[in-house]
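FORM 7B: Structural annotation worksheet

SECTION A. Query
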Amino acid sequence: MSGGIDSAAVALDEGRRRWTFAEIDRETDLLVQRLRSQGSRVIATLMDNAPAWVVADRAALHAGLVHVPLPAFFTPEQVAHALGAAGVDTVLTLPALAARWPQVPAAEITVASQPLVMLHLPARAVLMPTATTKVTFTSGTTGSPKGVCLAEAAMLRVAQALVQAMEPLDIRRHLCALPFAVLLENIAGVMAPLLRGATCVTLPLQNLGLSGSSSFDAARFHETVVAQQPNSIILLPQMLRAWTGYLAHSGQRAPASLRLVAVGGAAVGVKLIHSARALGIPAYEGYGLSEGASVQTLNLPGSDHPGTAGRALPHAQLRIAGDGEIEVTGSLFGGYLGSDAVVPIWWATGDLGHIDDDGFLHIDGRKKHLLISTFGRNVSPEWVETALRSESSIVQAVVFGDAQPALSAVLWSLCPDASDAALQAAVDTANAALPDYARVQRWVRARAPFSVEAGLATVNGRPRRAAVLQLHADALGMTATSSNDSEFP
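SECTION B. Predicted structure
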């Protein structure tokens, strides 16, 4: 436990019970002994948010093991891929999920009062950097997760920087609203608050309205936020959009206890930020990537420019390459699983952007998604998509137009019964704020939501552009090979 933290202070609050730092340390020590006695080297966790997950994460670190957090929304195929790619020899999971491996040796274990099952898989050597303490998996264009290897030092630098940057906010209670296996919540929502001595509210995800990877009940989420009275929350843009819409339609406001609602994972849009703040949600956009151990920049009270991703945090350095690509350094990963390629000092993110005179980072889109019209104009689809999603009647949008005279879009409405006229009005409003070459001239309704279940999104909620085009090519009057768009990594 970090020096200066009161061991009797509450570290974790799971609703039914509160756990002090001393109690969490004791639980961690017990699990460390168990893991060391059985010779574990690489442990995977596959479970819901709970104190047991936090204990397992800390125990793996204290025992000198590699921790592979797996989201519960991963498909069985993705889980199998991750276990094999990382050479996992121990899996800590819920009894119901353990039934997936009926032939694997298993033992019952209780961690932080939660009954779990520990599975023992055959040991398998894999290639990973020697300093690796955590492997986080991100979904690639094929749906097979890619393993990013992180060292303790890199993650600690990010957590310490967040503590330093947010010290004036005096965050004492953080509500964990994303799965712990998501690196953003793992580091910014668990590691950083505990490092400061704050309390993490660790409720099951269903209590927060989250189901699977992309289903979100904003009413239930708001009920929980009001009940828990947190000072901070981390949200994905889609969650912020749904919560803001719910508050606007129900005539309610966010609780006054909130001091920071950090939003990341995709572009947010200045209109959504302002709409959220008008309803009492102190929303601030940030930017990060797994290869940089999560957060790199963040808007904060007193250092805020809505529509940007904020200024660099104390641990991070950013620069813009000649072609407009954002490069970062300061907390880089060690490499990818199965690769011996040396990570350069400056990591090319694949994102396009620029830094203004005040040091705020502007994200202009993905380098590989750049559309070039038949008139020779370059357009980042994310720029146009953010403008479209800023309209209240449009919840999801994917823009196409490479080698086309004008842009087209596939739209998913917030209200299934929204009229064509309402959607056209939203497109017209978005177009009015864009130059003529970046305006959407044609649009169609999406035939399915952009979700993992529909095959149209990655597990982190970003669109699979090729799949969206394949499904709607006929309606758009395009062919599935007429665009060089590909999915986000």
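SECTION C. Observations
Confidence is low (pLDDT under 50) at residues 481-489. The longest helix spans residues 21-37.

SECTION D. Sign-off
Analyst initials: ____
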